[in-house]
User: What shape does this take?
Amino acid sequence: QVQLVESGGGSVQSGDSLRLSCAASGRISVLYVMGWFRQSSGKEREFVASISWNGGFPNYADSLKGRFTISRDKTRNTVWLQVNSRQPEDPAVYYCAAGGVLYSRDLSAYDYWGQGTQVTVSS
Assistant: This one.
């Protein structure tokens, strides 16, 4: 089994930057792709970004490219999601996921999920 724990969420002002982290533990030798998804109230969970476990092949949702950066910390088995210039549509629960299909944006391609971390925007 693989355990994923997200952190870094909270309330930030619009326009500020935020960095989310996802710590992986357990059978991490089976990990191939790490992804971030988000789900706003009343909406479906949507793809944000993904990266291979070795830190290569970053992939982003077209509408979010340029403001989000995904990266992999190999020393701590952690994946980061940097969110720059927060926008009003960014508040959501952000989920970390692990799977085995490079470049996949489908939820079904990911086998393991974290509990999510809530991000809100304060006025």
Summary: The radius of gyration is 13 Å. Residues 1 and 27 are 6 Å apart (CA to CA). The mean pLDDT is 90.
